[in-house]
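DM between two lab members

TW: hey, do you still have the AraC-like DNA-binding protein entry open?
JB: yeah, one sec
JB: this one, 318 aa:
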Amino acid sequence: MHTWSTDQVDPKDRFDYWREVRAKGLFGVTAELEADRRRDFFGEFSLRKLGDAGLVELRASPYRVERRTGDIADAASDSLCIYQQLGGGGWFGGARLDEFAVRDGMFATSYSDLPYRTVPLHDDGFHLRIIKVPVANIVPPGAELGELVPRPVQDETALRTLLESCFRDLIESSDAIAAAGTAPTVHALAHIALIERGIMRPKSRLAQQALRTAHLSLARRLIRRHLARAALSPTLIAGLLGISVRHLHILFEGTEMSFSETVTALRLEQSRRLLREQPRQTIAEVAFACGFESLATFYRLFNASESMTPGDYRAQTA
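TW: and the structure you got?
JB:
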């Protein structure tokens, strides 16, 4: 991961450096700010490779951003951009798109090589993440992104939840995984965005593959969310996903573990963490906090996994 901030530049040169080197050179945009506010400017970003895609997290004090025709000619990207607003909010506008605002947590999508303007809505400035996916890797034959102007993802659509889950998987992945194993998730994220924008047919092969990957991602998150419930079942998770129980089991068939094995593995993982980090909790409290239906079941499964009792594990890792 590459990180940089304006703290590395003399205060009087910070905005000029950000504008000429970072804004134009890295992001391919024109940055503007009144001269009397430039000395107080602050900006930082991180850049992480996700295979051929890139993940940028940017935080900066307020300034104006514009992607102009000249910027596009100088720094064409030919990428699908998926944005997540973090904190505050932002305004988007331009000659070819309707004005809109994004608030904290919202997503937006666009094709990189189209003009737009944006400014933060509040004094806390910009804070957002952007995943840029090269078009060559994700656009189905015959599809065009030339009209994919920036537009927010609607909160009420089920696709928004699936998109968010894949996005979070990429954010939370380790550097080793990011370098080697994120391509399926990146492609699923991009294809979910294209389905939401009407570029990809939901029944197409690529779309169905993306939906399976995204549903599996969300299923694992829902399992973690409801792990403490002894009544956690395929019926519960399938209902939350809006799919059949049979479909849920099919999702896990292509993975290393079935649904029930996944639940058990996650419960054991959480129990190990609690045994290490919560010394005041009794073994029984740990077991029931992780959703095991009985203390005997917990001891049996823990012994099978660790070749020792929970008490011995706690003593060994104290």
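TW: got it. The chain has two domains: 2-225, 230-318. The chain has a mean pLDDT of 92.
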